[in-house]
Write a structure and sequence with these properties.
Family: Belongs to the binding-protein-dependent transport system permease family.
Mean pLDDT: 90
Low-confidence stretches: none
Radius of gyration: 20 Å
Transmembrane segments: 24-44, 51-73, 143-163, 183-204
Number of helices: 11
Main location: membrane
Protein name: ABC transporter permease
Membrane topology: Multi-pass membrane protein
Strand content: under 5%
Helix content: over 70%
Order of helices and strands: HHHHHHHHHHH
Structural class: mainly alpha
Length: 215
């Protein structure tokens, strides 16, 4: 059976796995983005606190994904839970680091001007600092998403959702007629999803970042 014949015969399952893969990465990136920005807001004003946040999230990223999921299985069980926890933790570093850099890069004169017209600390954060820090934050989100696309495939080790199941089934049946087709279909699916997500982020950047800031 050729690759395209295999895809045609398994298109329903492949579409289901693709949707689950995209959904898992998207939801985990939302959680990681919220947590990462909160951590950055809490630490960017202090050199040691910012360094601690960056170092801690970087240390998490050094843990091999297979080991991370294996360590999570006794704690949260199999399935979706270890996938969500692992992907969220892995997605933190690019967001935290870029958010801290972005917030520290805001022109102090602009913050002082906002303070001078009576803006509260919260208003300055949400109306001045975070909007100006958005470009590097979005870059961090893009980088993290590309990482998680590949890491999410390992979730199949813990019965997680996504295209990793197709890859693992192919690896487990190496030598059979469709083993290579299974691995290839899962791999190409992840590559296509990564490209689509990145294109979506480019569009979001064009819609949300003023032209002057992009320049």
């Amino acid at each position: 059976m050729s690759f395209w014949e295999y895809v045609g015969s398994r298109h329903a399952q492949l579409l289901t796995d693709t949707f689950q893969h995209a959904s898992a990465v998207f939801q985990c990136m939302v959680i990681a983005t919220v947590l990462g920005v909160v951590i950055a807001v809490a630490t960017y004003r202090s050199e040691w606190a910012g360094a601690l946040a960056t170092t801690t999230t970087a240390t998490i990223l050094t843990i091999p994904s297979l080991a991370m999921i294996g360590l999570l299985i006794p704690v949260v069980g199999l399935g979706v839970a270890p996938t969500v926890v692992a992907l969220t933790l892995y997605g933190l570093l690019p967001v935290v680091r870029n958010a801290i850099v972005g917030l520290r890069g805001v022109d102090p004169a602009l913050v002082d001007a906002a303070k001078g017209i009576g803006m509260s600390r919260t208003a300055r954060l949400f109306r001045v600092e975070l909007p100006l820090a958005w470009p590097p934050i979005l870059t961090g989100i893009r980088v993290a998403t590309q990482m998680l696309m590949g890491i999410a495939a390992i979730a199949a080790f813990a019965s997680g959702p996504g295209l990793g199941n197709e890859i693992f089934r192919g690896i487990a049946s190496l030598g059979s007629a469709n083993a290579l087709n299974q691995v290839l279909s899962g791999t190409l699916g992840i590559v296509v999803l990564a490209l689509l997500f990145d294109a979506a982020y480019v569009l979001i950047g064009r819609l949300t970042i003023p032209r002057g800031i992009r320049a």
